[in-house]
């Protein structure tokens, strides 16, 4: 942080409201958590009143319920059904159009519609890492997704540290939370106690500093800063789930023929919910449509799931025809081969795939089972030697 | 924020090209020659592929089978809606092309050594550019062996080319699975030709393209005969929607084949192809 900037400041609820108004006033589309359809969803918000003050969530495998909170906290809920990829990597997007011309040629136009400048309010540390992971996937490599990069470059990110992990959370295992990592413009930590309802705030970018300076705020007092630090530290000790403390990439490589895949495949419906809810799953398919004249064609891209049997369609049939091979692809990619492809894991420990699986398949339970099976096989091998 | 590598090339949308020539290869396969309408894409290397767009139906990955100035030649078998459309395009028809994508054949690995090229069916298409490149620089390479397998005599691609390759100094052996009355050549799978190819495994680099089962069998056979696995190159096939490493369809374990392939060395490919439905 540059000299002359207070290390951290404190906003109250009005300050948070002012932040939303300021970002909207700057022409940004402000997206934040709000209650709808008995869930905390992400949607465009125009004031702090739309934040889920007083709502928490109860999570388990295949289970999500809202519950009211007596402390009135706005951000004491875990990841909801959506993630920020809904905005940065939209479910459906036109990429280009082509028209046949009178002289029999084809004119191609890249999609030029201006993507909105977003401000994201309440990005959890796990989700902040998920955005960084999609940055590597979609914004990296020899060819970049320029529309993703444009949306990402413009986005103003207000992260919120996690003080209330859910029963399906395992960010500590994945090294993504509950304290916020790099990549935010502003980071908040919500504190509700006898000292009032307030948000410890600090800037992570020049733009964040500039925004913070325009808000009504007071320098952080030691008590607020200390409480915020303690709440995040305590949250780290209250994770509902863990991943086995082994090299997950190696675990996946070494268990490709494990029995456990049969066990999980007997439960998996191959519905693809986990891939839709996952904040890093990025796969897409393209579709070409023409209008009635037959002279105008459009290229659309939409989210796709590796659980779809057509995902690996070749003229000889699908490469991954069996449900076993498709669940194995998802899990081994997520925590294993993602490292080979993009130099990081693809899992941030948010727990969404556990919550939104209709049959409650738990990625951490599967990883532990694979680890146990490998350990047992190694043990047996040692005995036989 | 580390978004967008500075040298990134968006590769969207496709560049307009026009079909300037089309020839029928077999009952279901045609070769189309494309020319840019305005500016050409960056140059393609042997083994790389393009995403070729048929108006209103979509695009598919096609290897280049000939590179001549700005002209791209593709050999297409009609198996789905898009390939059927592309294979039926007449001269003058517009297409869109994206690319070049993927790893090409590493011909430099064969400098000073002999080349063994093994093609099955349509797999000869991406190898044709390699054969041409090797024949153009005979001083750089040793012997050139070309083994070609096809289902039947009617499925052989590039009529007249094998004779030209022979005249240019290559040894070309051709076999078919199902001979007809006129066939006087070899019968059987392409690995059956390996004994007669007469290559020295210590100084040979092999290049394989064809159905996966054929490449697996051939690569195993070659490795058994003593060619080092890192001197065997294969061109692999998986579904591709983007060509740019973003759609996820072309994964083979740790590899994104549009980016890390389609040409992969056998030391990398063997353990991956050994896992069913990976």
Automatic annotation (TrEMBL), chain A:
Q: Do the record's keywords include Iron?
A: yes
Q: Which UniProt keywords apply?
A: Iron, Iron-sulfur, Metal-binding
Membrane-spanning segments? none
The residues covered by the 4Fe-4S ferredoxin-type domain are 257-289, 338-366
Renumbered to this chain, the signal peptide range is none
| A Pfam entry, by short name | Fer4_22
Top-level taxon of origin: Bacteria
Question: What is the protein's given name?
Answer: 4Fe-4S dicluster domain-containing protein
What organism is recorded for this protein? Streptomyces oryzae
TrEMBL record, chain B:
Pfam families given in the database record: DHODB_Fe-S_bind, NAD_binding_1
Boundaries of each FAD-binding FR-type domain copy?
12-107
InterPro entries in the record: Cyt_c3_hydrogenase_gsu, Dihydroorotate_DH_Fe-S-bd, FAD-bd_FR_type, FNR_nucleotide-bd, OxRdtase_FAD/NAD-bd, PyrK_electron_transfer, Riboflavin_synthase-like_b-brl
Which SUPFAM superfamilies does this UniProt record tie to the protein? Ferredoxin reductase-like, C-terminal NADP-linked domain, Riboflavin synthase domain-like
**PANTHER family recorded:** DIHYDROOROTATE DEHYDROGENASE B (NAD(+)), ELECTRON TRANSFER SUBUNIT, DIHYDROOROTATE DEHYDROGENASE B (NAD(+)), ELECTRON TRANSFER SUBUNIT-RELATED
* Protein name stated in the entry: FAD/NAD(P)-binding protein
> What is the originating organism of this protein?
Streptomyces oryzae
Upper taxonomic classification of the species? Bacteria, Bacillati, Actinomycetota, Actinomycetes, Kitasatosporales
């Amino acid at each position: 942080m540059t000299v002359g900037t207070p290390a951290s400041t404190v906003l109250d609820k009005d300050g948070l409201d002012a932040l939303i108004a300021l970002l909207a006033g700057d022409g940004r589309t402000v997206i934040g958590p709000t209650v709808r359809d008995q869930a905390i969803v992400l949607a465009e918000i125009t004031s702090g009143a739309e934040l889920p003050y007083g709502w928490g969530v109860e999570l388990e495998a295949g289970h999500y319920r809202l519950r009211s909170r007596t402390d009135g906290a706005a951000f004491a809920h875990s990841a909801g059904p959506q993630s920020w990829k809904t905005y940065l990597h939209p479910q459906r997007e036109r990429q280009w159009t082509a028209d046949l011309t009178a002289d029999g040629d084809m004119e191609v136009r890249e999609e030029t519609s201006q993507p909105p400048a977003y401000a994201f309010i309440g990005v959890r540390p796990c989700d902040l890492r998920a955005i960084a992971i999609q940055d590597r996937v979609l914004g990296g490599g020899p060819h970049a997704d320029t529309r993703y990069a444009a949306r990402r470059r413009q986005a103003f990110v207000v992260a919120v540290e996690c003080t209330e992990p859910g029963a399906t959370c395992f960010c500590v295992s994945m090294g993504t939370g509950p304290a916020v990592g790099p990549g935010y413009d502003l980071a908040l930590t919500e504190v509700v106690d006898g000292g009032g309802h307030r948000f410890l705030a600090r800037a992570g970018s020049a733009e964040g500093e500039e925004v913070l300076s325009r808000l009504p705020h007071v320098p952080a007092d030691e008590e607020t800063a200390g409480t915020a630090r303690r709440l995040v530290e305590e949250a780290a000790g209250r994770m509902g789930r863990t991943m086995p403390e082994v090299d997950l990439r190696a675990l996946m490589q070494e268990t490709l023929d494990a029995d456990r895949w049969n066990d999980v495949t007997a439960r998996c419906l191959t519905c693809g919910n986990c891939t839709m809810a996952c904040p890093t799953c990025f796969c897409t398919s393209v579709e070409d449509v023409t209008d009635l004249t037959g002279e105008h064609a459009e290229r659309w891209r939409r989210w796709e799931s590796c659980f779809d049997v057509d995902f690996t369609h070749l003229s000889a049939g699908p490469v991954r025809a069996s449900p076993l091979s498709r669940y194995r692809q998802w899990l081994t990619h997520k925590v294993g081969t993602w490292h080979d492809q993009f130099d990081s894991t693809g899992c941030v420990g948010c727990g969404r795939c556990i919550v939104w699986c209709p049959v409650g398949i738990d990625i951490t339970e599967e990883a532990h089972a694979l680890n146990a099976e490998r350990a047992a096989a190694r043990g047996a091998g040692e005995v036989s030697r | 924020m580390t978004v967008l590598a500075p040298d990134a090339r968006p590769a969207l949308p496709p560049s307009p090209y026009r079909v300037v020539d089309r020839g029928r290869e077999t009952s279901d396969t045609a070769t189309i020659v494309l020319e840019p309408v305005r500016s050409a894409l960056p140059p393609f290397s042997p083994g790389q592929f393009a995403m070729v767009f048929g108006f209103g139906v979509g695009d598919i990955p096609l290897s280049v089978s000939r590179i001549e100035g700005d002209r791209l030649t593709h050999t297409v078998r009609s198996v789905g809606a898009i390939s059927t459309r592309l294979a039926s395009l007449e001269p003058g028809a517009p297409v869109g092309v994206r690319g070049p994508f993927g790893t090409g054949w590493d011909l430099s690995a064969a400098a000073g050594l002999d080349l063994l090229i093994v093609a099955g069916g349509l797999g000869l298409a991406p190898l044709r550019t390699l054969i041409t490149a090797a024949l153009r620089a005979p001083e750089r390479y040793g012997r050139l062996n070309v083994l070609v397998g096809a289902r039947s005599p009617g499925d052989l691609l590039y009529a007249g080319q094998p004779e030209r390759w022979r005249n240019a100094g290559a040894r070309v052996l051709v076999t078919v699975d199902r001979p007809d009355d006129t066939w006087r050549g070899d019968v059987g799978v392409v690995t059956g030709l390996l004994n007669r190819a007469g290559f020295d495994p210590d100084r040979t680099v092999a290049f394989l393209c064809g159905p996966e089962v054929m490449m697996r069998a051939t690569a195993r056979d070659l490795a058994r005969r003593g060619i080092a696995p890192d001197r065997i190159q294969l061109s692999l096939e998986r579904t591709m929607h983007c060509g740019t490493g973003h759609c996820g369809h072309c994964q083979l374990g740790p590899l994104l084949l549009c980016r890390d392939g389609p040409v992969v060395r056998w030391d990398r490919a063997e353990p991956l192809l050994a896992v069913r439905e990976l």
